[in-house]
Amino acid sequence: MMKDIIFVCTGNTCRSPLAESYANTHVEGKSFGSRGLSVMSRSTNMKSLKIIERESLKMPSLPRQLTDEDTKNSILITMTSGHKMQILMNHPNANVYTLGELSGENTDISDPYGGTEADYEYTYQELRRFIDKIDFQSDIF
Questions:
Q1: Which residues are catalytic?
Q2: What is the mean predicted confidence (pLDDT) over 17-32?
Q3: For the whole model, what pTM was predicted?
Q4: 11 exposed, middle or buried (CB, 10 Å; 0-12, 13-18, 19+)?
Q5: Where does residue 29 fall: left (phi above 0), alpha (psi -120 to 50 degrees), or beta otherwise?
Q6: Which of 16, 58, 61, 80 gives 24 a disulfide partner, CB atoms 3.0 to 4.6 angstroms apart?
Q7: pLDDT exceeds cutoff 70 at 1
Q8: C-alpha span between 71 and 74 (Å, rounded)
Q9: pLDDT digits (tens, 9 = 90+) for 41-73
């Protein structure tokens, strides 16, 4: 059975929707979603949406809180090691990796929240670079 692949960040408004949109547009044969650990907004950040539209990416799902169900039936890809630790503290059996781990970059994705359009662009380029390095055909997925 193919598991859902869910990108996870803090609020599910900036990084994880960009990752979801990019992956759903550029990775064949897999389905991606996104969630947040502390969702406070019901819409994706406008600066992220601007990049998604400019790049003609598929639209992301609306911001949603990570659920117990998500942690049981999905492969979770977090933006930071802190996100991964937080998930594992509450869900020790979760199938969770950082984007840095999977890409071989071993670093966190910078958080553009509250930043300039240039900050969002930097984060988008980071996400693209990391996601493009992942072998989504590997046994992990």
A1: 9, 15, 111
A2: 96
A3: 0.97
A4: buried
A5: left
A6: 58
A7: no
A8: 6
A9: 999 999 999 999 999 999 999 999 999 999 998
